[in-house]
């Protein structure tokens, strides 16, 4: 292992440990809410998002509405991206949205591509009953440097009624982070 990969492996472990410490701290605060009647957290205060990748899959979570969270899963071999939305009143996945990232990455999402995926909060105008969800999903093809941002058309009325829904993730914008050719 060279110095660079050793350093990067150490940083990955550092960030994993940091995330574990933060989650433990949040767990302690939430747990202490039950032990100390003088301490309470406002409802919906904690809204954690996370992402991780392996050679085969990437996974991320993101807020879809004030009450629901989405689980985004990307299959690196096929480019198939899916979002499953957990309905809070049933504790079941009530919505599924899909797309293929290769189409939005201008054909760059080829077999052997490596992806990185994260979510971010968004507040779109007109985000009413059928407006865009409160999250944007960002996917980067780490082999080419091409990236795409996706929105999620989410019907909050169907969530409230516990009715299933499905649709397509919508590409919002795309770009390229690697502007120069790599010399061999």
Please characterize this protein's 3D structure.
Helix content is 23%, strand content 35%. It is α+β, with helices and mostly antiparallel strands and 184 residues long. The protein has two domains: 1-44, no CATH class; 47-176, no CATH class. It starts with a helix and ends in an 8-residue tail after the last strand. The model is unreliable at 1-11, 17-36 and 40-46 (pLDDT under 50).
Write the layout of secondary structure elements.
Layout: H1 3-35, E1 51-53, E2 57-63, E3 69-75, E4 80-87, E5 92-100, H2 101-104, E6 115-121, E7 135-141, E8 146-151, H3 156-160, E9 165-168, E10 170-176
Parallel strand pairs: 5-9
Antiparallel strand pairs: 1-2, 2-3, 3-4, 4-5, 6-7, 7-8, 8-10
Keywords: Membrane, Transmembrane, Transmembrane helix
Transmembrane segments: 12-31
Provide keyphrases for this structure.
transmembrane helix; alpha+beta; 10 strands; 23% helix; single chain; membrane; 6-stranded mixed β-sheet; 4-stranded antiparallel β-sheet; 184 residues; transmembrane
Summarize the structure.
The protein is α+β, with helices and mostly antiparallel strands and 184 residues long. Helices cover 23% and strands 35% of the residues.
What is the CA–CA distance across the termini? 20 Å
The main sheet comes to: 6 strands, mixed
Low-confidence stretches: 1-11, 17-36, 40-46
Structural class based on helices, strands and sheet pairing: alpha+beta
Strand content: 35-45%
> What string, H for helix and E for strand, traces the elements in order?
HEEEEEHEEEHEE
Quaternary structure annotation: single chain
Helix content: 10-25%
Shape: elongated
How many beta strands in the DSSP annotation? 10
The total domain count is: 2
Radius of gyration: 19 Å
Strand order of the largest sheet: 1-2-3-4-5-9
């Amino acid at each position: 292992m060279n110095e660079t990969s050793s350093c990067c492996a150490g940083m990955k472990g550092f960030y994993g440990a940091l995330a574990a410490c933060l989650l433990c701290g949040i767990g302690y605060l939430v747990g202490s809410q039950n032990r100390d009647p003088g301490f309470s957290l406002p409802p919906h205060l904690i809204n954690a998002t996370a992402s991780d990748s392996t050679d085969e899959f990437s996974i991320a979570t993101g807020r879809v509405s004030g009450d629901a969270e989405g689980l985004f899963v990307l299959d690196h071999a096929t480019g198939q991206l899916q979002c499953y939305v957990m309905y809070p009143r049933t504790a079941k996945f009530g919505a599924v949205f899909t797309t293929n990232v290769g189409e939005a990455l201008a054909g760059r999402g080829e077999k052997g591509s490596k992806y990185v995926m994260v979510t971010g909060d968004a507040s779109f105008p007109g985000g009413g009953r059928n407006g865009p969800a409160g999250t944007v999903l960002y996917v980067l093809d780490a082999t080419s440097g091409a990236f795409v941002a996706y929105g999620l058309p989410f019907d909050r009325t169907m969530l409230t009624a516990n009715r299933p829904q499905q649709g397509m993730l919508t590409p919002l914008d795309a770009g390229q982070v690697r502007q120069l050719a790599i010399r061999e």
